[in-house]
Q: What sequence folds into this?
């Protein structure tokens, strides 16, 4: 009898504890987002992005924007496009190799190395990018400095494992019969891959790319070491310094000059939060709601 | 498509995989190469265990190692029970709509940028810690680890839930059939069966806590000292890299950040190996079924 | 809709031409210029650099001027290695650095370094000895220097900082800085940190002092532009820009602009002392 009452007590304690943990987590997340919105929503206006510059002439690069987020947003956009541009071809190809071609021992070694790459702290990737820049500057061309190009290459290394993994998993999860039908109909291995398997795995791969984009957009540590600066304007070349949204948030948080500048920091934080959550949501929807058939029916 | 081009494309796939894998090794080589003078002889160990005092010619990273461990371990102390509680709530206690909503929120939380946590940390958490505990500036080990706990919890929760859900249903039905409750089923069947998953989750979260730069850089205060209490300001290996990387390339001060990089690299390697082992164990567990 | 856009464009063009014609002639040499100037280093310099860059880039949108911090040490090193066009420094580079890198120096302003506290703190005067003792950790409570009974939160800068070096040489007389001091990465960051922490003490370029922080009289002299200018406030230094070799092209124009009437007016507006 005594045992049963102890058991009931433990049970109660676990239930209470789990509700408490849930409540704490929700409170924290509401506090974080609520605080940002409370402080930052009133800054949401075209002026947050374009400052006192006319939006049209800013977009056409006729006039510089000084007190808005436009240069940082443009920098982040270029950075994401370039990094993803590097990482998608290499990552997809590597993922295909792992899923379709690699055997036993090779696969094991590759898997281990990609896990390691995925686990490396982004500042270590940044440090690598920085030392690579120094190396190139010393041994290849004096014209190479920390810049948009080198940041995008370093960031590509950061997101490479995501893309490899999602490609690999999307392919490996395909049912065996789908794999065999094409081959049975006389398609070569590669034809089967491009016309049957990849279209079916597309949803999984796209959601992986979207998550990688989110990672690129939010990462600060890599770009901090490879060329982002607090004030540069919209970059005019891939070899120049640039601004980026997450670095801007970091910079403003520690060294805002006045309350107005701090307010744009809140605005930038909300903007980045929404961009990342939006990408996340889209990736989620693609993964859940687009069954393989949608792509393969064409 | 000819067999020849077929082979070319296949080679290209291999080349891509090889390049990506090679980069992983190459990064390590580069870090060691740039920090070279520090690694010759037994100096690496010396660097790891001596203090940082550039004026006196000592470039050890001992305070940063202790700072990193203190902040990340404390973060785990906060995050583990929190995540365990939430995971139990999601997969055992509440199984209705609420559980789905909480799960969605947790999934969305993994998408929140680190720098946003740091930003909120500076303006919300630091004044709070300063006023509540009345000790120092509020930029301290405690603030950083609280924020890090929030950062790593979602990943941990999702992994916990995943490993709870992996335990075959049939195992638990026996308990229920004997008149046990769901909690009993969880305590006596699910939890013991899912320990490899728990190890994976904790290791992953620890890796994230150790590897994160922004939160510690923004709210831990960055003082170069071995923290004596949770209210002391501290510097992590990652922040140290971010703060010192612009120093003179030829100086030992600059070389020392490569010692930080190599330490982080080796630490990550150990964690990845632990995860591999745990996943391997889990594979065995599945075969029993 | 289209006519609205056209009107907006028209207004923008009108505004541009109007504002250009109203601009002082000191900027004229930048008209139609293209190219890039990379600036890094001293963080005290940043407000002046930003304002100058803003005016130049408004006039000629094809000029790109990027400004990074890092501290004086970084400015000297990066300019010396050719990583940036202009490296700023809040201290005079050593003879060794000047000859090794072939640096050319341009001192375009005079600045002081002041002890600052949070405005909520009532302590407004400290002696040199008190400041040195606070920084070694010998005095660790505000009540020992006439304030409330609260622990003093120290803030300092990293080794690359020229502001730190000047402060360390002249205010601390090369005394030790306690290990528990928090680190700020720039003058701006120091000011922001002190303005948020009611029991903080830090040091910052006099040009950066505003109502968000309170300057502390040092040995009885209140740090301000006037006292630095008159030589009463002793912790003063020049603000330098360094280039590797003689500057040319856009870089040269930029540095020349700092010494024009308008450039020196920016220096004064941002809280520093003009050299002309």
A:
């Amino acid at each position: 009898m005594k045992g049963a009452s102890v058991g009931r007590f433990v049970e109660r304690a676990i239930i209470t504890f789990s509700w408490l943990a849930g409540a704490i987590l929700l409170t924290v997340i509401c506090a974080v987002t609520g605080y940002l919105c409370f402080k930052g929503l009133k800054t949401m206006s075209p002026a947050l992005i374009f400052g006192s510059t006319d939006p049209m002439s800013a977009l056409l690069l006729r006039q510089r924007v000084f007190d808005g987020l436009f240069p940082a947003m443009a920098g982040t956009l270029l950075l994401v496009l370039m990094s993803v541009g590097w990482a998608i071809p290499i990552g997809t190809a590597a993922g295909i190799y792992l899923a379709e071609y690699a055997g036993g021992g090779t696969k094991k070694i590759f898997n281990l190395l990609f896990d390691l790459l995925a686990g490396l702290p982004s500042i270590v990737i940044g440090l690598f990018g920085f030392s690579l820049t120094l190396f190139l500057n010393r041994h290849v061309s004096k014209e190479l400095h920390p810049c948009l190009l080198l940041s995008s290459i370093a960031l590509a290394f950061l997101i490479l494992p995501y893309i490899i993994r999602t490609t690999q998993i999307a392919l490996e999860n395909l049912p065996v019969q789908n794999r065999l039908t094409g081959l049975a109909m006389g398609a070569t291995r590669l034809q089967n891959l491009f016309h049957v398997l990849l279209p079916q795995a597309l949803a999984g791969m796209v959601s992986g790319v979207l998550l990688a984009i989110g990672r690129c957009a939010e990462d600060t540590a890599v770009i901090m070491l490879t060329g982002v600066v607090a004030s540069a304007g919209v970059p005019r070349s891939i070899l120049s310094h640039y601004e980026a949204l997450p670095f801007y948030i970091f910079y403003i948080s520690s060294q805002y000059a006045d309350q107005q500048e701090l307010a744009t920091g809140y605005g930038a934080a909300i903007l980045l939060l929404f961009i990342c959550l939006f990408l996340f949501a889209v990736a989620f929807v693609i993964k859940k709601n687009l069954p393989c058939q949608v792509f393969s029916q064409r | 498509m000819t067999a020849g081009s077929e082979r070319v494309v296949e080679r290209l796939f291999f080349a891509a995989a090889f390049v990506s894998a090679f980069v992983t090794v190459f990064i390590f080589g580069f870090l060691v190469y740039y920090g070279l003078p520090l690694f010759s002889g037994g100096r690496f160990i010396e660097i790891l265990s001596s203090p940082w005092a550039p004026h006196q010619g000592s470039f050890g990273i001992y305070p940063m190692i202790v700072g990193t461990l203190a902040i990340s371990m404390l973060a785990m102390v906060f995050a583990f029970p929190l995540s365990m509680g939430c995971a139990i709530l999601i997969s055992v206690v509440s199984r209705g709509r609420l559980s789905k909503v909480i799960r969605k929120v947790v999934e969305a939380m993994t998408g929140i940028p680190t720098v946003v946590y740091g930003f909120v940390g500076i303006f919300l958490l630091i004044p709070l810690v300063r006023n509540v505990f009345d000790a120092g500036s509020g930029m301290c080990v405690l603030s950083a680890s609280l924020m890090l706990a929030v950062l790593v919890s979602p990943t941990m929760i999702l992994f916990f839930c995943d490993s709870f859900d992996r335990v075959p249903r049939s195992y638990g039905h026996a308990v229920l059939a004997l008149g046990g409750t769901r909690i009993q089923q969880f305590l006596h069947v699910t939890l013991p069966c899912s320990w490899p998953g728990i190890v994976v989750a904790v290791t992953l979260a620890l890796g994230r806590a150790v590897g994160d730069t922004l939160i510690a850089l923004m709210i831990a205060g960055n003082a170069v000292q071995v923290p004596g209490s949770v209210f002391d300001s501290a510097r992590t290996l990652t922040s140290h890299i971010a703060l010192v990387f612009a120093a003179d390339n030829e100086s030992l001060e600059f070389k020392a950040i490569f010692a930080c990089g190599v330490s982080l690299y080796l630490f990550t390697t150990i964690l990845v190996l632990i995860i591999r082992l745990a996943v391997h164990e889990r594979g065995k567990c599945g075969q029993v079924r | 809709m289209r006519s609205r856009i056209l009107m907006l464009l028209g207004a923008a063009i009108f505004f541009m031409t109007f504002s250009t014609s109203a601009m002082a002639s000191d900027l004229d040499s930048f008209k139609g210029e293209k190219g890039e100037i990379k600036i890094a280093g001293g963080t005290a310099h940043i407000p002046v650099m930003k304002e100058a860059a803003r005016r130049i880039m408004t006039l000629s949108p094809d000029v790109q001027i990027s400004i990074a911090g890092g501290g004086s040490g970084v400015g000297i090193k990066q300019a010396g290695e050719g990583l940036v066009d202009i490296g700023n420094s809040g201290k005079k580079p050593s003879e060794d650095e000047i000859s090794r890198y072939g640096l050319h120096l341009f001192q375009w302003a005079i600045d002081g370094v002041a002890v600052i506290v949070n405005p909520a703190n009532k302590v407004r005067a400290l002696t040199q000895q008190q400041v040195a003792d606070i920084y070694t950790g010998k005095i660790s409570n505000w009540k020992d220097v006439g304030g409330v009974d609260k622990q003093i939160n120290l803030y300092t800068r990293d080794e690359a900082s020229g502001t730190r070096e000047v402060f360390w040489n002249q205010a601390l007389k090369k005394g030790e800085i306690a290990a528990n001091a928090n680190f700020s990465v720039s003058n701006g960051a120091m000011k922001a940190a002190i303005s948020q922490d009611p029991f903080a003490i830090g040091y910052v370029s006099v040009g950066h002092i505003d109502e968000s922080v309170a300057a502390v009289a040092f040995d009885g002299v209140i740090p301000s532009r006037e006292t630095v200018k008159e030589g009463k406030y002793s912790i003063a230094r020049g603000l330098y820009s360094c280039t590797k070799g003689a500057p040319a092209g856009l870089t040269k124009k930029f540095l020349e602009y700092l010494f024009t009437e308008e450039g020196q007016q920016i220096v004064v507006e941002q809280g520093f002392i003009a050299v002309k």
Observations:
- Chain B touches chain C through 26 residues (CB under 8 Å).
